């Protein structure tokens, strides 16, 4: 099966732009996964540090850092999968000569980020309340 098509300079530019956009989505997904890992491990690290500095110190925990970090890691992974799907859809549209905006994907990602942001704000407020 031959997937090659003759590209004009303009069409080649469109394909390369789609690829750069895909790679930006992947970098963003990796950053969210990494941040999720840090968030998940932060509560454990903080308690271990406090114990080593002063064994009698008790650090109150909201218990939210692990699930919040896991949610961020999952969201980052889903974002990478959505990026690959969107890249495929855009390339098909370019081959057909039709380019459409994918507003549903933008809304989905925005809602996911808003939900994680809300979760993080609640976690920080609960942690501050327990201090």
Q: How would you characterize this protein structure?
A:
- With 131 residues, this protein is mainly α.
- It has helices at 9-53, 65-96, 103-130.
- Helix 1 (9-53) runs antiparallel to helix 2 and helix 2 runs antiparallel to helix 3 (103-130).
- The radius of gyration is 21 Å and the shape is elongated.
The residue fraction in helices comes out at over 70%
- Please work out how many helical segments DSSP would assign: 3
Q: What is the helix/strand order? A: HHH
In terms of structural class, how would the helical and strand content be classed? mainly alpha
Q: What would you report as the Rg, rounded to the nearest angstrom? A: 21 Å
Output mean pLDDT. Answer: 83
First-to-last CA distance: 63 Å
Q: How many beta strands in the DSSP annotation?
A: 0
Proportion of beta-strand residues: under 5%
Main beta sheet: none
Q: Which of globular, elongated, flat, extended, rod-shaped describes the shape?
A: elongated
Low-confidence stretches: none
Count of folded domains: 1
